[in-house]
Amino acid sequence: MARIVYSMLTSLDGYIARSNGDIGLPVPEAELHQHFNDMMRQASAVLAGRRMYETMRFWDSPERETGATEVERDFAHAWRETPKIVFSTTLRQVGLNARLVDGDAEDAVRSLKAQADGLVILGGADLAASLARAGLIDEYRLYMHPVVLGGGKPYFESGLSLALTPLGTQSLPQGVTLLRYAPAG
């Protein structure tokens, strides 16, 4: 059975992006980037909403293979190799190694969990909120940067209520602290 892990970089005050959509968080340097590369290589699939998918399409560019640093080239390769399931009612097509789902996300993820194995990375706050309400997320990973954005797009949707059990913390490069939680009960 697949394990759905919602994983995002956040500010100390819990935002994944500024109000204007700008990420506003420090760019991962090589050592921190390698952590994300390793996680992407472990993933059997990536789940993303439209906005997250469009942001990550940056890594589909062939230039990412030649013009970037070694760690960025490695991530681009891992990103392209990992199957992606994109949930959107507005997109009409997606790129290579991606499948578009415009129907019920909860049903699609329930089916994926039952049929697939391994780590499935979930990115995007809106999709995560829907899947959290349905009890489909197995783990929450908050990568807390030592910055305060003061507002914007929160990691957890406003009004979403969850009881969580701590799974552990880890200190990472650039002053980032990884906080891991599972749904309680």
From TrEMBL:
<dbReference type="GO" id="GO:0009231">
    <property type="term" value="P:riboflavin biosynthetic process"/>
</dbReference>
<dbReference type="GO" id="GO:0008703">
    <property type="term" value="F:5-amino-6-(5-phosphoribosylamino)uracil reductase activity"/>
</dbReference>
<dbReference type="InterPro" id="IPR024072">
    <property type="entry name" value="DHFR-like_dom_sf"/>
</dbReference>
<dbReference type="InterPro" id="IPR050765">
    <property type="entry name" value="Riboflavin_Biosynth_HTPR"/>
</dbReference>
<protein>
    <submittedName>
        <fullName>Dihydrofolate reductase</fullName>
    </submittedName>
</protein>
<dbReference type="InterPro" id="IPR002734">
    <property type="entry name" value="RibDG_C"/>
</dbReference>
<dbReference type="Pfam" id="PF01872">
    <property type="entry name" value="RibD_C"/>
</dbReference>
<feature type="domain" description="Bacterial bifunctional deaminase-reductase C-terminal">
    <location>
        <begin position="4"/>
        <end position="177"/>
    </location>
</feature>
